[in-house]
Amino acid sequence: QVQLQESGPGLVKPSQTLSLTCTVSGGSITTDYYYWNWIRQPPGKGLEWIGYISYSDNTYYSPSLKSRTSISRDTSNNQFSLQLSSVTPEDTAVYYCARGQTDYDYWGQGTQVTVST
Predict the structure, then answer these.
(1) 21 forms bridges with which residues in the sheet?
(2) pLDDT for 44-92, tens place per residue?
(3) Could you tell me what percent of the chain has a pLDDT over 90?
(4) CA distances from 9 to 14, 19, 21, 76 (A)
(5) Which residues contact 32 (CB under 8 A, 6 or more apart)?
(6) Cα 38 from Cα 53, distance rounded (Å)
(7) How buried is 50 (Cβ within 10 angstroms: 0-12 exposed, 13-18 middle, 19+ buried)?
(8) Of the candidates 88, 115, 104, the residue with the CA atom closest to the CA atom of residue 4
(9) How many of the other CB atoms lie within 10 Å of CB of 75?
(10) Beta-bridge partners for 73
């Protein structure tokens, strides 16, 4: 059974960089043909896909967030991470990590990140 768990600060100040890590257990992030995603849900809104890192270390980002987003991985710890720079209160959301390319079969429980002074 694959499990994903998000971790990171719950409060970030405006203009700073949001950093989250997803720890994966029960499967390797380098296993062929799997994609590892970051997705968020702002309060009162729908899910927004942020980007992914693939089994082969390729990345792809939402065009609307691309200029501020970086996703990387640590294969020794079976983790992948999100960095979102220059955050504003509009980046306040529950952030999820999930496995899949267009359909997601495993999700983390989500972590609330609030951007505020």
Answers:
(1) 7, 81
(2) 999 999 999 999 999 999 999 999 999 999 999 999 999 999 999 999 9
(3) 98
(4) 13, 7, 10, 22
(5) 55
(6) 9
(7) buried
(8) 104
(9) 11
(10) 80
